[in-house]
Design goal:
GO terms for molecular function: oxidoreductase activity, acting on paired donors, with incorporation or reduction of molecular oxygen. By secondary structure, the chain is α/β, with parallel strands linked by helices. The chain has 14 helices and eleven strands. Strand 4, helix 4 and strand 5 form a beta-alpha-beta unit.
C-alpha cells in the first residue's frame, strides 16, 4: 500500500506578516514530517513570490498553489514561474489550477462563462509553453472537470468536499492519478465551540454556487446550507474533536481513495496567526 501523505492547506502562508514568518512556519512543518504546503495564489496577475520564498527557505517539503486562478493569471507567466521553481527545486513544486468562482471573477470585470472551455484553452497554452500535464493538478468538483484532471494533469485537488466526493473522484480518476482533497479541521473537543469555529468557515463557502451545487449531488439541501450549515453538514465537511478524533475523520477520505489529505486547521478566521500547536498535535497522531 502506498503511504498516506499528510499535507497542509493554510491561508497563513500568503497572509503572514513577512516572508520570514512564512518560511519559519514552513520549516516547522517540514521538521514535523508534513509532505506539502498548499495555499491560495490569490487573485493577482502573477503567481505570488511567496511560493518561491518557501521553496528557497526549506529543503524537502513540497509546495503547491491551491489554486492559481485561470481567470487572473496568464498561462505564459504561470508556466515561466513553475518552470523556474522546478529547475531550482526539482520535484518540489506542483502547479494547482482552478476555475475559481463567478463572484470573484466578475468582480474583477471578467465575464465568467464556460469555465470548462476556459480551462481546456489554458491547458493548451501551458502545453505550448512547455509545462506538461505531469507538472500540474486541477481543482475539480464535477464530473467533467474530474475527467479533465485525469486526462490532462497528475490528478485532482478538490476543496470543501465530504468523503463521498473523494470516493466519486477516485472512481473518475482511476487508480493512477493523484487525489488530494483539502479538509478543514477544528482541534476542539467541545461540540458547541468546535461547530461555532467551523461555521465561521463554512458560511462563506456555502454562499458560492460551485460548492453548494456540488453538495446537492450528494443529497444536501437548502436546509443544510442555511445559517452556516446544519450540524450534519458541518460534521460531514469538518472533522473536529481531539487530534485522534480529527484523525478518524481524515481517515474517511483515505478510505475513500485519497492519496494525500491537505489539512486546513481552522483557528477562528485569523489567517495571520500560524496554528503551530495544532499542527504539532496532529502530526503526533497522523505522521
Amino acid at each position: 500500500m502506498a503511504p498516506r501523505l499528510i499535507s497542509v492547506w493554510q491561508p497563513f502562508f500568503l497572509q503572514a506578516e513577512s516572508p520570514a514568518a512564512a518560511v519559519a512556519a514552513a520549516v516547522q512543518l517540514e521538521d514535523l514530517g508534513y509532505s506539502r504546503i498548499w495555499f491560495s495564489a490569490g487573485f493577482g496577475q502573477d503567481v505570488p513570490s511567496r511560493f518561491r520564498e518557501i521553496l528557497d527557505g526549506t529543503e524537502r517539503i513540497g509546495v503547491a498553489p491551491g489554486i492559481v486562478s485561470i481567470w487572473h493569471s496568464s498561462p505564459a507567466a504561470v508556466a515561466a514561474f513553475a518552470q523556474d521553481a522546478q529547475r531550482a527545486h526539482p520535484g518540489r513544486f506542483l502547479l494547482g489550477l482552478g476555475a475559481s468562482h463567478a463572484v470573484l471573477v466578475e468582480g474583477n470585470g471578467t465575464d465568467y462563462r464556460k469555465p470548462y472551455s476556459k480551462m481546456v484553452a489554458y491547458l493548451d497554452a501551458l502545453d505550448a509553453a512547455g509545462l506538461g500535464a505531469e507538472q500540474r493538478i486541477l481543482a475539480a468538483l464535477g464530473p467533467r472537470m474530474l475527467d479533465l484532471s485525469r486526462d490532462r494533469s497528475v490528478g485532482a485537488h478538490p476543496y470543501f468536499t465530504p468523503a463521498e466526493h473523494t470516493a466519486e473522484a477516485r472512481a473518475a480518476l482511476g487508480p493512477d492519478r493523484l487525489l488530494v482533497p483539502e479538509v478543514a479541521v477544528v482541534v476542539e473537543a467541545d461540540p458547541v465551540a468546535a461547530r461555532a469555529t467551523a461555521r465561521q468557515y463554512t458560511a462563506g463557502y456555502l454562499s458560492l454556487p460551485n460548492y453548494t451545487n456540488n453538495l446537492r449531488r450528494f443529497g444536501w439541501t437548502d436546509e443544510d446550507f442555511a445559517d452556516g450549515g446544519s450540524d450534519r453538514l458541518v460534521d460531514a465537511l469538518i472533522p473536529w474533536g481531539t487530534p485522534e478524533q480529527v484523525a478518524a475523520g481524515l481517515d474517511k477520505h483515505f478510505q475513500a481513495g485519497a492519496d494525500e489529505v491537505a489539512i486546513q486547521v481552522l483557528n477562528g478566521g485569523d489567517a495571520t496567526t500560524f496554528p503551530g500547536e495544532e499542527f504539532r498535535a496532529l502530526a503526533a497522531v497522523l505522521i
